[in-house]
Design brief:
single chain; 157 residues; alpha+beta; two-stranded antiparallel ribbon; 13% strand
């Protein structure tokens, strides 16, 4: 959902959570609106629901709505850009930022899986470059090297 300064994820599918969400957003009457009375109706009228919710949510910043919705017991969270994600205090506290070496880019920051099962689960390499594994993958599929060159010439690969 759009807010005044960013985006917010709201998880209010169940009826009890939806009622708390509507009340927290200042519109308990949404629960009586036939378009939004049940989860099935909310999904069938999703565009209308998003419109009314965004009208409210865009009046204030993401941080405000996170506090309001969390206080109401509504699952929610900010949608981060990369800079926000790497700067998040909880991400830093849990040691989720890891680095992988890339020959062109140097040390590249990554977010490891938040589920910690010891130190064995780590980011070990940077993401592959576009097309880096084409020869290997297409070779396994039986595409000959000259066919791959032809596809590259045509701009397919």
């Amino acid at each position: 959902m759009k807010t005044k300064d960013g985006y917010l994820m709201v998880g209010a599918a169940g009826e009890a959570i939806w009622e708390r969400c509507a009340a927290a957003l200042g519109h308990p009457e949404w629960c009586e609106d036939p378009r939004f009375a049940t989860n099935q109706q909310r999904m069938a009228n999703r565009d209308a629901l998003e419109t009314v919710m965004n009208t409210v949510l865009t009046t204030k910043a993401t941080e405000h709505w996170v506090k309001v919705l969390e206080a109401a017991g509504v699952p929610c969270g900010p949608v981060y850009d990369y800079a926000q994600m790497f700067a998040d205090p909880q991400v830093r506290h849990r040691g989720l930022v890891q680095y992988a070496s890339d020959p062109e880019l140097g040390e590249v920051p990554h977010i490891r899986t938040p589920i910690k099962i010891g130190e064995g689960v780590q980011v070990r390499t940077a993401a592959p470059k576009l097309g880096q594994h084409n020869a290997e993958i297409f070779g396994r599929l039986g595409v000959a090297e000259n066919e791959m060159k032809e596809l590259c010439t045509k701009g397919v690969l």
